[in-house]
Amino acid sequence: MLDLLIEGGELIDGTGKARRFADIGVAGDKVVEIGRLEGYPARKLINAKGRIVAPGFIDVHTHDDCLLLHAPKGAHPKLSQGVTTVITGNCGLSLAPLITQSPPPPLDLLGSGDWRFESFADYLDALEQVQPVVNAACLVGHSTLRVKHMQQLNRPATDDECARMANDLQSALQAGAIGMSTGVYYPPAQSATAEELIAVGTPLQAANGIVTMHIRDEGDAITAALREALHIGKTLGITTVLSHHKLVGTANHGRSVETLGMIEAASKNQSVCLDCYPYNASSTMLLPARVNQSSDVLVTWSKTEPQAAGRSLFDLARERGQAPVDVAKALQPAGAIYFAMDESDVSRIMSHPLSMIGSDGLAHDVQPHPRLWGTFPRVLGRYVREQRLLSLELAIYKMTGLSARRFGLQGRGVLAVGNFADIVIFDEHDITDRASYQQPTRVSTGIDAVVVNGVLAFKQGCTVNSHAGRVLRRA
Ligand SMILES: [Zn+2]
User: Fold this and answer.
1) Closest alpha carbon to 92 in 84, 104, 76
2) What is the pLDDT of residues 405-447, one digit of tens each?
3) Is residue 377 within 8 Å of residue 447, measured between CB atoms?
4) How many angstroms does the Cα of residue 276 sit away from the middle of ligand 1?
5) Are residues 243 and 113 in the same domain?
6) Residue 475 C-alpha to ligand 1 middle, in angstroms?
7) How far is the CA of 60 from the centre of ligand 1 (A)?
8) CA 242 to centroid of ligand 1, rounded, Å
9) CA 30–ligand 1 middle distance (angstroms)
10) Which of 212, 295, 350, 400 has the CA that lies 20 to 30 A from 274?
11) Chain mean position to CA 267
12) What's the pLDDT band for 260 if we cut at 50, 70, 90?
């Protein structure tokens, strides 16, 4: 007897192979049969006629560390997109191990109320206890380690500080963290050298961990920043993920030809890949330096002037007769969306064989970037169906099989007998992101159902089970 039978759909299995008609039989948390299963006895039946059945999507770039600790009220930004697994702790920012009342920017992008974990093991245990809405594999943030172990952040770490950070990383890996993330672009880690990152990251070698990097510069100095990141990954001898690859600033538009060429050349000698999101605007803390690189800037939140959320910084500057950078300084601490990328780079990076899809969404912003709610349906609607930039099979591979392989998520990312039953059922003709810069939390259309570990978690626009996810600890 099957627990769940998904009947009549077209299977796209996450390997990149062409679609085929196949039914899926689930027992417990696993896929146990794939093929023609008409008439099989099953406790629950989902009719998937006219629909695509695919592995649940893996959001490889998230800042969901806090979000996952709390059961969703209403629709969930990730589950509602068909996402069944998230990678947390990116860009050098992880919630653990750090106890603080006031996380320094950009750590505050993760939210402010949950900085209460002495060790990474404590965080993973707490996450396991709440039973998260989706599966989570977790990275340790180098900036978080710096904030914990260094009194002064505006200098490279001493040997002793590096040893203490490495020690914390080692414990986290033993507890089940999958690797480390770095964010030398941001103030808390700007003074960190490549030598420091290599020293702290040393435990990743024996553990076969991964490193994800928000590189030092995504504008004029991007090639030097890429060289540094590739050098660190190569020296450590581990898989390197270049986070949200993009080119910022008009002068750099079109340079993805050059940067992808560099990454491709490096990939012949080391394991390297990248993630990207399907928008030509980025979002992070409000950085005066980035204001000048942008054609428009939207405020996503401000502690000093909460009513500025959702407004254009340039409009505010005009109204006040001030320079935009001065308004940016006055709103601190704050977050923003920056329109500073070129669509041709976005498309070129997304269609590159080494790229995976990751949202980089910020769940605690008052007026968040729409990527938080729209990333995956936007790739499948706008870039696959409307623009035919890539095939549906390839797009799904970049959200599932490729991601699971790169991040070492065993039994996930491919729909095959014996693998976990993380499944999304959607209408390829209807799937569309509805989140916009004006209305960023609108739920996407076209997702019929989402199954997490064999449990029906989302159906026709509603969360039906918020606790089917698991903590995916490093094997
Ligand atoms: Zn980042």
Assistant:
1) 104
2) 999 999 999 999 999 999 999 999 999 999 999 999 999 999 9
3) yes
4) 10
5) yes
6) 26
7) 12
8) 10
9) 34
10) 295
11) 22
12) very high
- Residues spanned by the domain of 181: 56-282+339-411
**Tally of CB atoms within 10 A around 33:** 16
Measured between alpha carbons, how far is 159 from 199 in angstroms, rounded to an integer?
8
Q: Which position has the token pair 């340079």?
A: 255
Residue 41 Cα, ligand 1 centroid: separation in angstroms? Answer: 47
Closest CA to 427 of 391, 473, 465, 392: 392
Separation of CA 156 and ligand 1 centre (Å): 21
C-alpha to C-alpha distance for 220 and 183, rounded to whole angstroms: 18
Whether 165 and 223 map to the same domain: the answer is yes
Question: What are the b/e assignments for 283-293, b being 16+ CB within 10 Å?
Answer: bbbbbeebbeb
Cβ atoms of 85 and 409 within 8 Å: the answer is yes
User: pTM for this one?
Assistant: 0.97
400 with 303, same domain: the answer is: no
**CB-proximal residues (5 Å) to ion ligand 1:** 91, 214
Structure tokens at 232: 């660190």
Say how far apart CA 244 and CA 278 lie, in whole Å: 10
Calculate how far, in angstroms, residue 283's C-alpha sits from the geometric centre of ligand 1.
9
CA 363 – ligand 1 centroid, Å: 14
